[in-house]
Design a protein that fits this description.
The chain is of the alpha+beta class. The chain has 2 domains: 38 residues, Orthogonal Bundle (GTP Cyclohydrolase I, Chain A, domain 1); 138 residues, GTP Cyclohydrolase I, domain 2 (2-Layer Sandwich). A hairpin with a 5-residue loop joins strand 2 and strand 3. It comes from Nitrospira lenta.
């Protein structure tokens, strides 16, 4: 069991850095025009005239995470502090796109970590989430990338990430299940080795808090 856990820990996350090139809006526009034609539409009709341009911009926006640099994003917002209790930032909204169907999946991310002599500026956690969400993704990889980035950048004693999401590829096509939620988690360091830490995290992210209605 312990051996299994160790080998799971060592497994590297698939590289998802893209080509490094910015989205090519011109090529995207031309392809959207082709797509409209292939769908039997008329790209020349009034309502569709600006559609290729709009779609190209929207796709570039939704995949901008390929071009975000985590160190730049953190902007030095790592603060030395003697605080060794768990920090949780939960209910972080995100939108991503599944790499299989190029359809959105969206939901909430809950993040917890055990600091090791430093904490990170709170807003930087949603920024890290968006950096990895705004790419073509699968939910599990998104989950692991957020967790591993935080663990490395904070040198934290432990990190826990839970992602709850609805996938439009399971809703508006395919199995057409409207109420299905996929839950994935990544537990690193103390969150993996200490059941008590993990349970505390899971309990705290379930609790309703300031400004929540449930
Ligand atoms: N594990 C995982 N699967 C995903 C994610 N997003 C989409 N999928 C699944 O990817 C799979 C792709 O399966 P395929 O059989 O190749 O594609 P498909 O014929 O369109 O599959 P159906 O959706 O079942 O119609 C489907 O089961 C999707 O539900 C994700 O984030 N994580
Ligand atoms: Zn999909």
């Amino acid at each position: 069991m312990a051996k299994q856990a160790a080998s799971r820990r060592r497994k590297p996350v698939e590289d998802m850095s893209g080509t490094g090139r910015p989205a090519d809006l011109g090529v995207l526009q031309a392809l959207v025009t082709e797509t409209l034609l292939a769908l039997g539409e008329n790209p020349g009709r009034n309502g569709l005239l600006k559609t290729p341009e709009r779609v190209a911009k929207a796709l570039a926006f939704m995949t901008q995470g390929y071009h975000r640099d985590i160190d730049q994003l953190l902007n030095g917002a790592l603060f030395p502090i003697e605080y060794d209790e768990m920090v949780i930032v939960k209910d972080i909204d995100f939108y991503s796109m599944c790499e299989h169907h190029l359809l959105p999946f969206y939901g909430k991310v809950h993040v917890g970590y055990l600091p090791n002599k430093k904490v990170v500026g709170l807003s930087k956690i949603p920024r890290i989430v968006d950096t990895f969400a705004r790419r073509l993704q699968v939910q599990e990889r998104l989950t692991v990338q957020i967790a591993e980035t935080l663990k490395t950048k904070l040198n934290a004693h432990g990190v826990g990430v839970v992602v709850e999401a609805r996938h439009l590829c399971m809703m508006m096509r395919g199995v057409e299940k409207q109420n299905t939620v996929a839950v994935s988690s990544s537990m690193l360091g103390a969150f993996r080795t200490q059941q008590q830490t993990r349970l505390e995290f899971l309990k705290l992210i379930r609790r309703s808090g300031v400004g929540t209605s449930d």
